[in-house]
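Quick log. Single chain, no ligands specified.
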Amino acid sequence: MRETSLRRGFSASLSRPHALCGTTVALAALLASAAPASAGAVGEATAAPVPAPTAQPVCPGRDLDMSWDTSGAAKEGRPSGQQETAVVRVTNQGNRPCVLTGHPEVTLRAAGRDTESLRADGRAEAPLTLGPGRAASFEVVFLSETAEPAQAITPVRMSVRLPGTGAEATLPWRWGPVTRQEAATHPGNHVGPLTAVTSTAHPTGHRPASPRPVGCGQGWHGLQVVAVSRHGADACPTATAVTAALGRALDAGRDLPVTVRAAGTAWKCAEREGDPNPHLECVNTRGRSERALLVS
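-> predicted structure:
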């Protein structure tokens, strides 16, 4: 499809960039980062994230045990090509209450010196008091790689350091290759804060926001870029880069469907039917639930 055919086939009557159907010309580009998936149930509620009493010390590393919890959605030995969640359980094995807080430092390590560090996911941190024998947990969210080994790391272990405690642990990695994301604006690999173990499906009380449209200004051939993302206006640079890559491919004579690379990953672009007009859609092959649009 060429830009001239787009202009014939699409209405120019869009008055608001956030309209995603009807009279829009849409170029959908899934944005690489997804909000972290919540872990499943990990046990009975034993502690609430409350302000730590000043008399209670930070948990000493020697009293903390870390292990994989079975509540994560990731399946051992079954890479999925999708974003997955694993959960680490932290247990106070000491004989008195103590306090934890913050996002753990997590690094995936391959057999050699190859590593992938996971960023904190930005959720709020709250002091968490653990009694003797009580547990906390945190989520490890990662993009499982199955299609392009060249852009993946194949970890054999994961190293963890808990903030302020001196606690360190090395856990075996069970889920195969992981897509590299250290250079991504919104990485699909990230780590959540320490939270109380609860019996609910969402132990942190956090639910990912739904993707929503946001206008990002003009792009290829003067068309309006609209991101559909959980990250609001922060998603605009990625959406603009993807639409520009598609524009270059079309200007070079490539036919739809076409795969382009932008924001460190591959995006599959095709023409879709709309009401009343058709549109173009680019889908991030690493996070199929997020999109962005180009509108005339």
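The longest helix spans residues 236-251.
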